């Protein structure tokens, strides 16, 4: 049984998430796993109905999710012109990340079709790495703030807040993940002090995993390598904001950030959440042209997590077949709508199962 809390959020989420959910329903019919889900309208829909983006007790609601659900499928929280600035489903995201302490944000970067490669001469053999982004601390920890706001003396402090325990567990997660996935190397991408916390903890943890090659790469060099020599990259572990930026570079070299999914985990918990890497895409809201593939691939990651590997592999084959057929949205050079792409993926899934 897979029990999912579906929380679309803001922006294009309401266009892409229905396609992910319908794809899960098709997979559930074809591969006969039990599926149960509930849709939570937090974000723009909740705002339009009630005047607030989330219920007052949102933190408690999110904290209680693991008692009823195995996983959450989240769309995006952020800018949406239908909601006053400063309000968004980000509260849901904060709850999922920090409230539930899902500290390891796993963002695979794989080229699904050689024709999509924006890098000259690089194929799907070259572009296949995973960015593991710390999800609760670093630059996105929420610590810091503004002082003397609105005066000429206003100051802003936004620290890169790292704890020994927080850094250690995500680096351990990365090495364990590398071992489970048969990967050979883990690189830490950072630019802290020469003997700072990230580099010391990385050395400490890597010494316990002698079969995996450890590599220390400055974060700017890692961004450069992703574009010039992605074949040298295997697993990357990084501080919150650095990991966010690097995984967007990863999305770009996959052909579009509309293709990149993520899964967020805590090694001690039986609950995870999955999302597209992209945001609310405010420039294309309501046009029906958002690429639903990142959301569909996030649903695929969720099935992997729940052990429904056959269905998960079939969804990925269906996405690849749909890209190959040319039924793609404009970010991938096509002219199909969100709904047409979703339908094409589900048709491909049906055909795949019939073969
Ligand atoms: P965030 O701050 O939440 O990461 P952002 O504003 O930095 O969000 P996105 O919302 O991901 O970034 O949008 C960046 C660009 O990528 C926009 O031009 C947007 O239209 C495009 N984009 C994002 N997601 C998709 C998608 N699924 N399909 C097509 N284009 C997309």
The percent range for helix content is 40-55%
Count of alpha/pi helices: 11
CATH top level label of the largest domain: Alpha Beta
Topology as H/E string?
Answer: EHEHHEHEEEEHEHEHEHEEHHH
Structural class: alpha/beta
Largest sheet: 10 strands, mixed
Task: Please tell me the total number of domains.
Answer: 2
* Whole-angstrom Rg: 20 Å
Strand share of the residues? 15-25%
Distance between the termini: 26 Å
Overall mean pLDDT score?
95
State the CATH superfamily name of the largest domain.
Isopropylmalate Dehydrogenase
Which strand order do you get reading across the main beta sheet? 2-1-3-12-11-4-5-10-8-9
Bound molecules: adenosine-5'-triphosphate
Q: Using the alpha-carbon principal axes, give the shape.
A: globular
The total strand number stands at: 12
Low-confidence stretches: none
What's the arrangement of secondary structure elements?
Layout: E1 2-9, H1 13-31, E2 35-39, H2 44-50, H3 58-68, E3 71-76, H4 90-99, E4 104-110, E5 128-134, E6 145-147, E7 155-157, H5 164-180, E8 185-190, H6 197-206, E9 213-218, H7 219-228, E10 235-238, H8 240-253, E11 261-265, E12 272-276, H9 293-305, H10 309-325, H11 338-354
Parallel strand pairs: 1-2, 1-3, 3-12, 5-10, 8-9, 8-10
Antiparallel strand pairs: 4-5, 4-11, 6-7, 11-12
This protein binds adenosine-5'-triphosphate.
Adenosine-5'-triphosphate is lined by residues 12, 16, 76, 78, 257-258, 278-281, 283-284, 290-291, 294, 329, 331.
What does this structure look like?
This protein has helices at 13-31, 44-50, 58-68, 90-99, 164-180, 197-206, 219-228, 240-253, 293-305, 309-325, 338-354, and strands spanning 2-9, 35-39, 71-76, 104-110, 128-134, 145-147, 155-157, 185-190, 213-218, 235-238, 261-265, 272-276. It has 355 residues and is of the alpha/beta class. The protein has two domains: 1-102 and 269-355, Isopropylmalate Dehydrogenase (3-Layer(aba) Sandwich), CATH 3.40.718; 135-254, Rossmann fold (3-Layer(aba) Sandwich). α1 packs across α9 (293-305), α1 runs parallel beside α11 (338-354) and α5 (164-180) packs across α6. The two termini are 26 Å apart. The mean pLDDT is 95. The protein binds adenosine-5'-triphosphate (ATP). Residues 12, 16, 76, 78, 257-258, 278-281, 283-284, 290-291, 294, 329, 331 line the site of adenosine-5'-triphosphate.
């Amino acid at each position: 049984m897979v029990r999912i809390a579906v929380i679309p959020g803001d922006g294009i989420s309401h266009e892409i998430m229905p396609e992910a959910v319908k794809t899960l329903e098709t997979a559930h019919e074809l591969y006969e796993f039990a599926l149960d889900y509930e849709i939570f309208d937090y974000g723009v829909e909740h705002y339009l109905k009630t005047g607030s983006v989330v219920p007052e007790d949102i933190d408690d609601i999110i904290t209680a999710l693991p008692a009823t659900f195995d996983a959450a499928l989240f769309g995006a929280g952020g800018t949406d012109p239908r909601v006053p600035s400063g309000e968004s489903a980000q509260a849901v995201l904060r709850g999922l990340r920090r409230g539930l302490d899902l500290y390891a944000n796993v963002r695979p970067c794989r080229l699904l079709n050689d024709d999509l490669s924006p890098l000259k001469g690089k194929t799907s053999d070259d572009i296949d790495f995973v960015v593991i982004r710390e999800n609760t601390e670093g630059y996105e920890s929420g610590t810091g703030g503004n002082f003397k706001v609105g005066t000429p003396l206003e100051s802003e402090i936004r620290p890169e807040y790292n704890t020994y325990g927080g850094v250690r567990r995500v680096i351990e997660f990365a090495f364990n993940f590398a071992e489970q996935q048969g990967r050979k190397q883990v690189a830490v991408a950072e630019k802290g002090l020469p003997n700072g916390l990230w580099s010391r903890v990385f050395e400490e943890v890597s010494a316990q995993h002698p079969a995996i090659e450890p590599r220390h790469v400055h974060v700017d060099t890692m961004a450069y390598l992703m574009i010039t020599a992605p074949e040298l990259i295997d697993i990357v572990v990084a501080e919150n904001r650095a990991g966010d930026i690097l995984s967007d570079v990863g999305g770009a070299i996959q052909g579009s950030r509309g293709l990149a999914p993520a899964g967020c985990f805590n090694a001690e918990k039986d609950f995870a959440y999955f999302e597209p890497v992209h945001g609310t895409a405010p420039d294309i809201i309501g046009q029906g042209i958002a690429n639903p593939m990142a959301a569909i691939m996030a649903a695929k990651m969720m099935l992997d997590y729940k052990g429904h590997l056959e269905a998960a592999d079939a969804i990925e084959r269906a996405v690849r077949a749909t890209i190959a057929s040319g039924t793609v949205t404009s970010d991938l050079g096509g002219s199909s709508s969100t709904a047409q792409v979703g339908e094409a993926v589900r048709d491909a899934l049906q055909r795949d199962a019939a073969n």
